[in-house]
Amino acid sequence: MAALLLAGSAAALISAPAQAATGQCAGNRIEHLPVKTGGGTVKGYLNIYYNPASGYNCARLDSYGSYYGKRKQMSVTLHTCKNKTSDYFSCKPIQVVTDDGYYTKYAGPVKLYGKGHCIAASAVIDAGRNEAVRVTPSYHC
Q1: CA proximity to 99, closest of 58, 44, 53, 42
Q2: Whether the Cβ atoms of residue 62 and residue 44 lie closer than 8 Å to each other
Q3: Domains of the chain by residue range
Q4: Mean pLDDT in the chain?
Q5: Strand ranges (DSSP E) for the chain?
Q6: How confident is the model at residue 84 (pLDDT cuts 50, 70, 90)?
Q7: Which of 19, 31, 71, 78 is the most exposed, fewest CB within 10 Å of its CB?
Q8: Is 80 exceeded by the pLDDT of residue 115?
Q9: Is the peptide bond prior to 109 cis by the omega test (within 30 degrees of 0)?
């Protein structure tokens, strides 16, 4: 399902390369969203930031609890959208950045210039049978 969520949203896009993983996002945290399995287990948190001084949004996916420190597949994606909609798949992306790999603590950060635009984000931990997924609507315009 996660591959469908991420691939479906970026199928017709040219994705920008992920930003270098410095570990921290600048600015104010505007979202702290649990990333849960279908059974409700929290494996991590999707944290989204906005820096009003620079106009950049940033996203980072942090492991949580017993999943922290264990090597696992993690992916965090951030979009700037042309429109505001409550449906992640209806975001008409201007730009997309993704960090996807095997990590022990966090994926990202990824950042995009977002001033004057809506954003959408997605996060996946442990793609497969017991994956945890979180997607946001297009918001924070």
Answers
A1: 58
A2: yes
A3: 2-135
A4: 85
A5: 28-37, 42-51, 56-63, 72-81, 93-103, 106-113, 118-125, 132-135
A6: confident
A7: 71
A8: yes
A9: yes
The string of pLDDT tens digits covering residues 23-73 is: 799 999 999 999 999 999 999 999 999 999 999 999 999 999 999 999 999
**Stretch 93-119: mean pLDDT:** 95
* 57: alpha, beta or left? (left if phi > 0; alpha if psi -120 to 50): beta
- Residue 140: HSE in the Cβ half-sphere, 13 Å Cα cutoff: 25
Cβ–Cβ < 8 Å for 44, 67: yes
Joined together, the tokens standing for residue 96 give 């997309």
Q: In sequence order, what are the beta bridge partners of 61?
A: 46, 107
